[in-house]
Amino acid sequence: MIPAASLLDHLPRCPLGCLPTPLAELRRLSRHLGGPRIWIKRDDLTGLALGGNKVRKLEFLFGEARRRGSDCVLTGGATQSNHCRQTAAAAALLGLPCHLALSGAPPPVPDGNLLLDELLGAQIHWCGEQRKGETLPGIEQELRSRGLNPFVIPYGGSNATGALGFVAAFQEFSLQAGECQFQPEAIVFASSSGGTQAGLLVGAALAGWPGRLIGIAIDKNATGGEPLPGFITRLAGQAAERLGANLSFDSVILRNEYAGAGYGIVGELEREAIRLLARQEGILLDPVYTGRAFGGLLDLIQRGEFSRGGNVLFWHTGGTPALFPHAADLR
Ligand SMILES: *Cc1c(COP(=O)(O)O)cnc(C)c1O
Questions:
Q1: Which of 55, 63, 58, 69 is nearest to 12 (CA)?
Q2: Which of 84, 132, 147, 322 is most deeply buried (CB count within 10 A of its CB)?
Q3: 190 CA to middle of ligand 1, Å?
Q4: Is 103 labeled as catalytic in the residue annotation?
Q5: What is the mean pLDDT of residues 267-287?
Q6: 103 CB contacts (<8 Å, ≥6 apart)?
């Protein structure tokens, strides 16, 4: 076992989040379902402009941006990207101009994450069909030609630097689980651009954790044309290398059967999961990521994937600002 904390200590990092986030048991819901005991890690409460999992990645990404002396940041995503909103907030906090490449076209009245991007002062570049940062190289060139030195953050903040945020997150969780004296047999979470899962894989390997990390695939299409499992294992290897740990990863658990009609299309699975957690525990999920992932968890429980007397952890990754633009799908 290698203490992850000491490996992470020497890397540049900007404190951005309210960490550690709470770890809690979902007592009413567990009773309602009749087992297993379900726990939740509240990364919807990371604190930066309504929170979410990207804050953890951005601590290391902005650490790197500061080390390089970048004078602005550039990233991209969907119109309602949580990653872009959290990047805009981090940039504001650190006094760096933020450029966002968003899919779609400007709506008459911005809402949800897009409204927040504007309030946070980000400059938006509209990119039509492209929602995975395909237009970043062109915009980077344009910024450089204006004499700027942008720090470019890939789609979802998912490179080896970003994934380090979830190596640190796993360590945070390990300490809390020790204090609460419970060991989940599995951790279930939404997986999309892969950085969260890659970081958790490395953190779990460093800690010698024996449980299963179950990613619920949100998106039918792969990142940059590469199948997600291969991308995640490669990213995990690179993140481990960054820490000087010689680890390689050859498999991931990624459940593909819950992606429904595709990215951002809300169905019965998400609607029911959001209502159930809201009404049993007073906790809000989001329509795109965590609603789908929690719906997947409920289905896996129903199908007997976990032992009845065991413990399972749901890692809430945020996204709640997207509830409002999806109002019509949720009623
Ligand atoms: C980005 C995001 C995820 C997925 O995390 P990845 O690291 O991209 O796989 C899950 N939930 C929410 C709310 C997100 O914004």
A1: 63
A2: 84
A3: 6
A4: no
A5: 98
A6: 77, 78, 79, 127, 128, 129, 130, 131
